[in-house]
Amino acid sequence: MNTGSNEPGEAAVVSDGSQVDGATTDRAGDERGLGSRAPEFVRARRMLHLSWQVGVFAIGLAVVAVGIVLLPLPGPGWVIIFAGMAIWATEFVWAQLVLRWTKRKVTEAAQKALDPKVRRRNITLTTIGLVVVAAGAGVYLSRFGIVVPWKIEE
Q1: Distance CA 42, CA 108 (A)
Q2: Which conformational region is residue 136 in: left (phi greater than 0), alpha (psi within -120 to 50 degrees), or beta?
Q3: How far is CA 143 from the centre of its chain?
Q4: pTM of the full predicted structure?
């Protein structure tokens, strides 16, 4: 599984410094390792840590569910979904890997969008789309006129 690094040989390291897949990383001080961010006294007790993980999962699930509900509605659905993923990432390695991958893809998309050639193409396509919509609206209005659903004259 890709951990979001472009460097060969980099391994996932849990926060206590132990190795996940048998390899070590040279960037241990540069970036915090993968794994639980629970306080030490919680990680020291198995049942407490399991309860902690269940609580983090439940809270993250609730936040992600709210984000999913807000996707078709007006509101910051994707931002809330990523906030739920960030909550999960405090405890689960899979969520940390997904967030790492997402951050990399968003950064790549932002860099690509800033490319002058791509910006020119996007502006051209947007202009063409707006002209087509305006022409369609003009044809509709010339054919049917403006009809309001309520009667103001009465």
Answers
A1: 37
A2: alpha
A3: 44
A4: 0.52
